[in-house]
Design a protein that fits this description.
The complex is a heterotrimer. By secondary structure, chain A is an alpha+beta fold. Chain A is built from 20 helices and 10 strands. Chain A has helices at 2-30, 33-36, 39-62, 69-74, 81-86, 92-112, 119-143, 167-196, 201-232, 243-268, 272-295, 308-332, 347-377, 387-407, 418-443, 447-472, 482-488, 491-516, 620-637, 644-659, and strands at residues 518-524, 529-532, 535-546, 551-561, 564-569, 572-576, 581-585, 587-589, 594-604, 608-617. In chain A, the strands form 2 sheets. In chain A, strands 2, 3, 4, 5, 6 and 7 form a 6-stranded antiparallel β-sheet that branches. In chain A, strands 1-10-9-8 form a 4-stranded antiparallel β-sheet. In chain A, a hairpin with a 3-residue loop joins strand 9 and strand 10 (608-617). Chain A is globular. By secondary structure, chain B is α/β, with parallel strands linked by helices. Chain B has a single domain (34-175), classed as Glutaredoxin (3-Layer(aba) Sandwich). Chain C has 2 domains: 33-96, Helicase, Ruva Protein, domain 3 (Orthogonal Bundle), CATH 1.10.8.640; 107-165, no CATH class. Helices cover 55% and strands 1% of the residues of chain C. Mean pLDDT of chain C is 78; it is low at 145-166. The chains are: A alpha+beta, B alpha/beta, C mainly alpha. Chains in contact: A-B, A-C, B-C. Chain A binds chain B through residues 273, 277, 280-281, 284, 291, 295-299, 308, 311-312, 315, 318-319, 322-323, 326-327, 329-330, 333-334, 370, 372-374, 376-377, 381-382, and chain B through 2-3, 6-7, 9-10, 13-14, 16-17, 19-26, 28-32.
């Protein structure tokens, strides 16, 4: 009963999304307030229907209803409850429902937090989002219904892939999808603006917090995926330039460019048609990602079970959505104004350069990801493009970008003087060189590439410090305290600098772990030890343990530092009977300055085991940096310009002031 | 003129869409062989049924023949095996098996159970000859001509369609 | 008994028990760590054809284990990295290389990013130059002169007003 209800709810949602897509749009064109007024309630109803449908699927999973095909393929009676819930999005159909749920969520959120938008504008925005929902609902109902029944009902399910039975699995897809889908808001704002012809700084101000929010989720989602791979996959890697990883990274790069471009459009009313194009591009890359993962055109560890019919549908959807929006762009954008003037050296130009670099980086990733497919399609052979290519090509693009990151925030809008900039930044440059040399001396053996990495990170930090020192400097005459001066820094500025600081922390993590990581691959009997620096790893043997749905060989490794005990680690080799698969579970001692990473290899004769031991310096700064970036974004998005209450008070005071 | 620049994103996207559409028909996992139309790697392997006798590549010169890579642990091989048995009965060309990374007893038992279409099977216990032939997934089938040149490689189980429309026409052409 | 003698006896006993237990510094899994490191470096750039999403260095598939064994053998024979790569591509084609070889068909791949960068830079310069040549009335009116986020102005009370203005 419940699965049928869930299915019915999706059909109802389809209908509502069609109404949402049509009536307000026509209403805006014909100035019919009653039709435009349908938008907000329709969005709310759409969300309620999809959410209830999702609950139905969750109930089927938690209730072990193996008569539902999707539940039978992704769950098992011995699967713990929390993983039964997470299994809802463990396969293609359920993850599409999650995607659709999030799209409905963003739609209703936009409907709720848009009191300040004119009726026509919000009507168009919600209509576009309605059409997107319509497309995804249609896709599910036509090709990927999660509620299909399986007759006869099997005694037990096939179980969730053990790789996915993990806390990281629970949170990574929802975060990532929030980001992917969140970019549809910027997309809808852009398309609505193209339809209505009202592209200006106000439009940018409305769009910016939504874009930043989506960017935050995308940043966290990607970081979680990377962190999860690190501790789950057993050999300590954290980025593989896998096609699906790239599919999430490309929208992130464009979303980052979009945030910067929106800053210019909001502040100076410039780059308008460019910003709109970026908004369309960002979400298009999200959609492209969906296609790549689910169509089977690329081989990837993340790819869902493929079906060419699904691939064709998504491709058709892509062509309609992206084709229509780019056609609209080609038609409307030429008449958009140029905005305000700016000099050749100004913050605007630096941000434009930032955009060029980010887009070229995205282009490079896209090229590498799709090149094998393109060559094959042209009948010119089959090649592979992997980490050696991406590492070679991507890192050199990062360096000029980071260099600009140090300059941009200190440059003035409209026009900035080179001597002025140079004199302020020379301190930062000098400090960066000193810090790099000091670090190289302390850690030893870093090499040229490592030195460049350190220099980049310290350059950013130096620039941020320079900016804050200037802002916190006591102003002549005004007797204000440091704390008071700090509170006067707008949140968007503080947020920006903190996000940039996050990038610096990230770069430091990557550089230090890549140059300083030590690995030992050894054969250990009970009592054997292996040494890395001052750390001694002692093997305590392996015993059998029973988990909820697995059997494991659990190893014990004791770590001491100059004789003093540090930690005892328990790497495991788990066997899951339901899927007949074996998982290597590493155990990690997480530290601020280093991770101790231990995993079991194979058992060899004589009761010994192959044990892999790593010391990874500063590796957690990689994800720590991402977290700091996200926090910076959060701070920036909460700037007073975007907060309704503040806005209303300010508008009241302005109207009073102008009346006076 | 100005409008032209604004059409570039659309044009680029449509080109991409065409590539993706073509991609839907392709299999990204299939690895074409670089050995087509190249001399087959030299080998000398003992027979599965008689460890004392060796078969070499040079022994096969002068005739067109088919090499089928199989193993008793390979589930997909069971799918194509009846087809091979039927094909062998027609006695079109010599059919040899490459028993890949298997145990002699298991392999012999498997043939006894499912039928033995091969003139002989080569016992490649370490898989080295398989590697030389570029084998990465069992079963695989090769057509080799009179001069020892590989003319066709089929990856995966044979189907009636492949046999009828690819292999048999090729064999006719080579024999002529 | 004197303190130092006690300590000495304890130390001796400990050393004895350790020796008896057979505990020792663990040996590397590989017989020749230097060779192993070279093998890992080479196979880390090769694609496992069975699972296709791991390197031959990392994969546990039968073929990957075999190819690692072959690579070690070739390294012991003194073969160079290039010869080992040639061995792999002769059998499996370019698909096995994660670092695509530079050929006419991959020239666009390898030079593409640099070309995109040059193109992007050229377009940027072109657009900026064209903007400076346009008359002032082609632009929209400048809303805020030296608004809030420029540097050097005092931490200001009027940032609220600036924010409220737009």
């Amino acid at each position: 009963m419940i699965p049928e209800l869930g299915h019915l709810l999706l059909w109802l949602a389809l209908g509502v999304s069609a109404v949402l897509g049509t009536m307000p749009l026509v209403g805006a064109a014909r100035n019919r307030t009653d039709w435009m007024a349908l938008a907000r309630p329709s969005a709310a109803i759409l969300f309620a229907l999809v959410a209830l449908s999702f609950v139905c699927l969750a109930l089927a999973f938690v209730g072990k209803d193996f008569s539902v095909l999707y539940v039978a393929t992704n769950s098992n009676s011995s699967l713990p409850t929390h993983y039964r819930f997470a299994a809802v999005w463990g396969g293609h159909e359920g993850s599409m429902l999650l995607w659709t749920l999030m799209l409905a969520f963003w739609t209703v959120a936009v409907a709720r937090f848009s009191a300040h938008l004119p009726d026509k504008v919000i009507a168009r925005i919600l209509a576009v989002m309605g059409w997107l929902s319509f497309g995804f609902l249609l896709f599910m109902l036509a090709t990927s219904n999660p509620f299909d029944r399986l007759v006869p009902t099997p005694a037990d399910g096939r179980d969730l892939n053990p790789l996915l039975q993990d806390p990281g699995m629970v949170i990574h897809p929802p975060m990532l999808y929030m980001g992917y889908v969140g970019l549809s808001v910027a997309f809808s704002f852009a398309v609505a603006a193209l339809i209505g012809g009202n592209l200006d700084a106000t439009w940018a101000r409305w769009t910016r917090p939504w874009t930043t929010a989506a960017w935050i989720f995308l940043t966290l989602g990607i970081a979680l995926g990377s962190g999860w791979a690190y501790y789950e996959l057993g050999w300590g890697g954290w980025w593989f330039w896998d096609p699906v990883e790239n599919a999430s990274f490309m929208p992130w790069l464009v979303a980052t460019a979009l945030i910067h471009s929106l800053a210019v459009t909001e502040k100076r009313n410039s780059f308008k048609s460019w910003t709109v194009l970026l908004a369309i591009l960002a979400f298009s890359l999200s959609l492209l990602g969906t296609f790549l993962v689910r169509s089977g055109v690329l081989s990837s560890v993340h790819a869902f079970a493929t079906d060419p019919r699904r691939g064709l549908f998504i491709l058709a959807f892509l062509v309609v959505v992206i084709g229509a929006s780019l056609t609209l762009y080609a038609w409307r954008a030429p008449s958009v104004g140029l905005g305000a003037r700016f000099a050749l050296l100004s913050r605007e130009t630096l941000l434009l350069s930032n955009n060029v670099l980010l887009l070229v980086a995205c282009g490079a990733v896209l090229l590498g990801t799709l090149y094998p497919l393109a060559l094959d399609a042209l009948g010119m052979g089959k090649i592979s493009v992997g980490p050696p290519y991406f590492d070679t090509v991507f890192v050199p693009l990062l360096t000029p970008l980071v260099f600009l990151m140090g300059i941009g925030p200190l440059a003035r809008w409209k026009e900035t003087e080179l001597p002025d900039l140079a004199s302020r930044l020379k301190w930062a440059a000098g400090a960066a060189v000193v810090a790099t040399v000091a670090t190289m001396w302390l850690r030893g053996g870093i090499g040229v590439v490592g030195a460049v990495g350190l220099l980049m990170a310290f350059w950013i930090i130096g620039s941020i410090a320079t900016d804050f020192v200037d802002r916190l400097r006591p102003v002549g005459g005004l007797r204000t305290g440091l704390w008071h001066r700090a509170r006067l820094i707008p949140r968007s500025i503080a947020g920006m600098q903190i996000a940039h600081l996050g990038v610096a922390v990230f770069i430091l993590g990557v550089t230090l772990v890549k140059t300083g990581e030590v690995e030992r691959d050894v054969r250990m009997q009970v009592g054997d030890t292996t040494t890395i620096g001052d750390l001694v790893f002692s093997f305590g043997g392996v015993r059998d343990v029973q988990g909820p749905n697995y059997r494991a060989a659990r190893g014990t490794v004791t770590v001491t530092d100059k004789g003093r005990p540090v930690v005892t680690l328990h790497p495991e080799k788990r066997h899951y009977p339901a899927t007949q698969s074996t998982m290597t579970e590493a155990d990690i001692d997480v530290g601020l300055t280093r991770d101790l990473y231990v995993s079991l290899g194979e058992a060899v004769d004589g009761g010994a085991w192959i044990v892999r031991v790593y010391v990874k310096p500063f590796v957690d700064w990689i994800w720590g940096g991402c977290l700091v970036m996200a926090l910076g974004g959060l701070l920036a998005a909460s700037d007073r310009r975007y907060r309704a209450k503040v806005r209303r008070t300010a508008e009241a005071s302005t109207s009073v002031a102008s009346a006076a | 003129m100005k409008r032209f620049w604004f059409l570039i994103p659309l044009a680029a996207f449509l080109a991409l869409a065409v590539v993706l559409a073509v991609g839907l028909k392709l299999d990204p996992r299939e690895v074409p062989s670089p050995l087509i139309d190249k001399p087959a790697p030299k080998f000398a392997l003992p027979r599965l049924d008689d460890a004392g006798r060796t078969i070499r590549l040079d022994d096969m010169r002068g005739k067109v023949w088919v090499l089928n890579v199989w193993a008793s642990w390979c589930v997909a091989c069971r799918e194509e095996h009846p087809l091979l048995v039927e094909f062998a009965k027609k006695k079109v060309v010599p059919l040899y098996g490459l028993n890949y990374k298997d145990q002699r007893e298991d392999a012999t038992r498997w043939l006894a159970r499912f039928g033995n279409p091969y003139d002989a099977s080569l016992y490649d216990v370490e898989g080295r000859v398989g590697i030389d032939f570029g084998v990465y997934g069992v079963p695989e089938t090769f057509v080799i001509d009179q001069n020892g040149v590989i003319r066709l490689k089929h990856i995966g189980p044979l189907t009636p369609d492949v046999l009828a429309n690819k292999i048999e026409p090729l064999l006719k052409k080579l024999d002529a | 008994m004197p303190d130092s003698l006690c300590k000495a006896i304890v130390a001796l006993l400990l050393a004895l028990s350790a020796a008896l237990a057979g505990a020792k510094e663990a040996l590397p899994e590989a017989a020749d760590p230097a060779l192993e490191a070279r093998m890992t470096r080479i196979t880390a750039e090769l694609r496992c054809l069975v699972c296709q999403n791991q390197t031959i260095a990392d994969s546990n598939a039968g073929l990957a284990v075999d190819l690692r064994r072959e690579t070690r053998a070739m390294l012991r024979q003194g073969k160079s990295d290039a010869e080992i790569i040639a061995y792999m591509t002769a059998r499996y084609g370019d698909f096995v290389l994660y670092r695509p070889p530079l050929k006419s068909t991959t020239a666009l791949l390898w030079f593409g990013p640099a070309a995109m960068l040059l193109l992007g830079g050229a377009v940027l310069i072109f657009v900026l130059r064209r903007r400076t040549r346009l008359a002032a009335d082609a632009f929209e009116p400048d809303e805020d002169e030296e608004a809030g986020e420029g540097r050097g102005e005092p931490a200001r009370a009027d940032s609220d007003a600036a924010a409220a203005r737009t």
